[in-house]
């Protein structure tokens, strides 16, 4: 699927942008916001295709020469800027300004897409502001941001804001069954972890991530040598720091499901519905306060790992405690002493 058709669950936003093209009221700047994996870049590319399409203007056929070039990011009248070394720098914005100062090579429109706009340096942001203050011709700039509060208010005020909508869980699950061949049970789990973000669901549906989810859940429910399994999982994650955020998300949703069951909530609100019996058994072993304390410990660990904590020591302490929520030890006591020259994140 190409163009606006690929934006499942975003019909209201699509209609708004299509109407802007049809009525000739396309804004000079848009701020597209949403969590990672929510479809911001997909929407921006689809909008560009709709502007450039020669077969179905305002909709995008997805197959004409212009649509294909936009999809491949090599249309001469479109520039896509992404963070370089974690930041968008002034030279990148200057390149955008230089491109916009020229006439369009083909057609009428010039399009600029800035991915991760909140990472602009102060110099880059100020340079972009001058461009937004002096729009020229049929040019559109799209700023994509997961943290719009980090942008200059003066930049935000000059943009039309578009917020990506969370997609219903069942809609994502049906998509995963159809496009990825997942079982209904697995598709529901992935959709729950994706939390309304189709792009995130597509990533989680990849084979290695599916295997990782099962590995983490098995470690959390293991009856034999739970402490040893916890330490083994901590060692594996220490060796794969790029998987940490995802792994902790799985852990938090597991604990949340335990808490919901402990409080008597319905099975349908759970993420890990396919592990209902195991979660129900675990929820009977611990008090709601013990489970809530465990959730807090995971959050503290996540903050410590983003700081300067020793990764291996932090993970060992966290997962060893999660093996027995009734343990009197507190993993957070370890973090303050975990800063060293050892493995870092």
CATH class of the largest domain: Alpha Beta
Q: What is the mean pLDDT?
A: 88
CATH topology term of the largest domain: Rossmann fold
Number of domains: 2
Major β-sheet, in short? 5 strands, parallel
N-C termini distance: 37 Å
Approximate helicity band: 40-55%
Quick one: how many beta strands?
Answer: 5
Helical segment tally?
16
SSE order: HEHHEHEHEHEHHHHHHHHHH
Supply the CATH architecture of the largest domain. Answer: 3-Layer(aba) Sandwich
Shape: elongated
- The side-by-side strand order for the widest beta sheet comes to 2-3-4-1-5
**Which parts are unreliable, with pLDDT below 50 for 5 consecutive residues or more?**
331-335, 340-345
- Tell me the Rg in angstroms: 23 Å
- Structural class by helix and strand composition: alpha/beta
Structure overview:
The structure is a single chain. This protein is α/β, with parallel strands linked by helices and 345 residues long. The chain folds into two domains: 3-163, 3-Layer(aba) Sandwich (Rossmann fold); 206-335, Zinc Finger, Delta Prime, domain 3. The protein has 16 helices and five strands. It has helices at 11-23, 40-52, 65-71, 90-100, 122-133, 153-156, 169-180, 184-194, 198-204, 207-221, 226-239, 244-262, 276-283, 288-306, 311-322, 332-335, and strands at residues 29-33, 78-81, 110-115, 139-145, 160-163. Strands 2-3-4-1-5 form a five-stranded parallel β-sheet, with helices on both faces. Helix 5 links the parallel strand 3 (110-115) and strand 4 (139-145). The radius of gyration is 23 Å and the shape is elongated. The two termini are 37 Å apart.
